[in-house]
Amino acid sequence: MSIRKMIALHPGARPSPPLADAAHHLMYCAKMCLSCADSCMAEGHGAEHGDMTQCVRLCSDCSDICEATARLATRRTGDDQPMLRELLELCARMCEACAAECERHDHEHCKLCAQMCRECAADCRNAAASLAG
Amino acid sequence: MSIRKMIALHPGARPSPPLADAAHHLMYCAKMCLSCADSCMAEGHGAEHGDMTQCVRLCSDCSDICEATARLATRRTGDDQPMLRELLELCARMCEACAAECERHDHEHCKLCAQMCRECAADCRNAAASLAG
Amino acid sequence: MSIRKMIALHPGARPSPPLADAAHHLMYCAKMCLSCADSCMAEGHGAEHGDMTQCVRLCSDCSDICEATARLATRRTGDDQPMLRELLELCARMCEACAAECERHDHEHCKLCAQMCRECAADCRNAAASLAG
Amino acid sequence: MSIRKMIALHPGARPSPPLADAAHHLMYCAKMCLSCADSCMAEGHGAEHGDMTQCVRLCSDCSDICEATARLATRRTGDDQPMLRELLELCARMCEACAAECERHDHEHCKLCAQMCRECAADCRNAAASLAG
Prior knowledge:
CATH class of chain A: Mainly Alpha
Number of helices of chain A: 5
Oligomer: homotetramer
């Protein structure tokens, strides 16, 4: 199963390959961040790992923004490219802020989440650039 | 029942009144736009009202962005103000684009949706300004 | 502004008044529970208030289910009444479980959330009954 | 990247393998249905393919229910198993109703969506059974 293939079956204009890639990774990143926020909340707040409050916040916010961006990136009916481009760029900044916070902690879920966020940020920037021309 | 009152009961810092107002109206605008997109889809595509495709798209996108913005605006745990301010400003532009499209149609649901979007855009700008200082 | 009025402007069949009421309260309850989960997470876990972990979980789950139910209850295009009725009944049970947990804590946000959940559960049951005939 | 691996990194109890599989496929199905609804809306309504209105409705509703179910299935903090089991069973019925509608149309996106929905329904039933004991 592939979101990229599904989007390409829309009767309207084909998405740029970078946009289809971004739609796919945004879907993943939204759920990775949701899971990381849930895991961070359950970690102890001891000296070893530091306070996880800010990590819960950024992962939760990043999940919501990735989800909204994934939904706009998936739609092919009508045209909302200028807003989608702005949102992809904002989402890239959100993913980078979330990754920077996750990289401050040594939990395995934070490391995995940071890696996903870095990849997603790069995909969002590529997709935004593909819409520019 | 009031979302403003609920947010103010958080044990952390109180939200600025403009931010609490925005959280409230974003919640409404997300559902008004969802309903308008659903209504536009069901309208005939005759010469009288014009093609509703673009209106469905912008109302759907506006609903998703308002929903995400409402969620960030509601959270008080941790601090994500710079990203929230950016998102409020982007959301104001999205609401204005949606309002401009809805104002091109004479359906009662489009008129009501446009009015809600204009108010929500103003609230988002006020809330963003309240975070700036 | 009123969600009930907006839904009634759909060109298709009018919603039953109990269904329009439920759509309105579900929208509120989704955000009240999101805010309560966020507040519970920020409360201390001392002997005075007890562990808030389960309250965070139920408020988060209740928020997600109310949001999905609100979306289905708002749509008027096509017909999905049997599924909507099932979901309204499940959502009523979720709201009651969330209320019962919130009622175990003496935070003001928990009291307000419990009250909202009790009202929303009653609205969901009324709306489900209005679809039955 | 894997949602299953991420969920397993939670400091609390491990999810059953069927629940982790369901969380993964629910995430996909939510976006496949969102994309199919968007594609159906853009199809012509000619005699060849039939009216797509009901397909838009069921795909939209299925997307929302899969999204909510994915979120509950991903959370590991606290315990909400009875409600999760009920929701997985309801979601399986929703996926089957959506698949049955999509199977009435010969669009490639409908065929792919129906296949995804059938797989997701089976995963939801397996996950619900894994929670029962």
